[in-house]
Amino acid sequence: MSASGGTKAIVAALAANLAIAVSKFVAFLFSGSSSMLAESVHSLADSGNQALLLVGGKKAQREATPQHPFGYGRERYIYAFLVSIILFSVGGMFALYEGYEKIKHPHEIDHWYWPVGVLVFAIIAESFSFRTAIKESNTLRGRKSWKEFIRHAKAPELPVVLLEDLGALVGLILALGGVGLALLTGDGVWDGVGTICIGVLLVLIAVVLAIETKSLLLGESAGTEETKRIEAAIVDGDTVTGIIHMRTLHLGPEELLVAAKIAVQHDDTAAEIAGAINAAETRIREAVPIARVIYLEPDIYSEAEAAKGSDPEATPGGPTQHDPAH
Q1: By the 8 A CB rule, do 189 and 106 touch?
Q2: pLDDT tens digits for 146-172?
Q3: CA nearest 157: which of 249, 250, 253?
């Protein structure tokens, strides 16, 4: 997995969640707190999620085969999507069910110092994990806001870990609030209310992750800056005079497919066009190193064809069309 995959952040989150899951479950056994049970299942699900991200990163490194000629880069997207499903079902839905049962059949919390102590420990451990994820993300985020980073990141691991850690911290605070109110009032219903809140939080995070990873699975184009660099690299002003139309597609977080129909002079020889295409491919790879699969089709620009309309399919000799999503 490349550095942008956030392996360090994943390993840090995995270690923290395993330790926290054990401590929370022990606290549940001594106290009977449903918030602690929901949180222990949450941490266990998070641990499984981080393991899935590591497996996806490993599988994505396999070499291309005749059956999969573009390689296995999208394995990382598939496993990230599985994470969202597990977080929704195992984490969120279980917490909602457990909270409902606790509200329906409340009971006092025994040995209050166990859940409170474990929750404080868990908040400290999750804070270190969250700090690692933020530090790893900042190297890639640049000037983007956190919302933009999560929306447009092509490597799914860091957004997943960030949202999981954020959800874990907020969930721990909700659990601490539920346990605290149950102890102060002597009413175990508050413990169930805290558990319900945790469930709603996990479901919302899972939905966001599912939407973002679904978009990656469907296939996203290069970012705006990358697209501009590719366009600038293609045109040499001599043999390649312009771009008729161009499409880009992420085959994986660090592998980009570029397909373009380029305008050439009508009196250029085949050898000159072939040389210009090879030179353009070299310039593209220098400008955007992740552009590893490049297909350039030469054509002669025609003003008559361009005048027929804006559809590149209907006007093969027409001008380039920029996707607003870029």
Answers
A1: yes
A2: 888 888 888 888 888 888 888 888 988
A3: 253
The length of the chain is 326
What contacts 85, CB < 8 A, 6 or more positions away? 206, 210
* The predicted structure's pLDDT at residue 1: 41
One DSSP character per residue, 63-123 reads PP-SSSTT-STTHHHHHHHHHHHHIIIIIIIHHHHHHHHHHHS--PPSSTHHHHHHHHHHH
Q: Are 174 and 162 in contact (CB under 8 A)?
A: no
| Residues 140, 138: Cα–Cα separation, whole Å | 5
The predicted model scores a pTM of 0.73
Helix (H) or strand (E) segment spanning residue 262: strand 255-264
Strand 240-252 with 291-299, pairing: unpaired
Mean pLDDT computed over every residue of the chain: 83
Q: Which two tokens stand for residue 44?
A: 């266990």
- Token pair, residue 36, equals 């602690």
| Locus of tokens 């605290």 | 180
Asked if residue 209 lies in contact with residue 83, where contact means CB atoms within 8 angstroms, the answer is: yes
> How far is it, in rounded angstroms, from Cα 194 to Cα 36?
10
Q: Are 179 and 116 in contact (CB under 8 A)?
A: yes
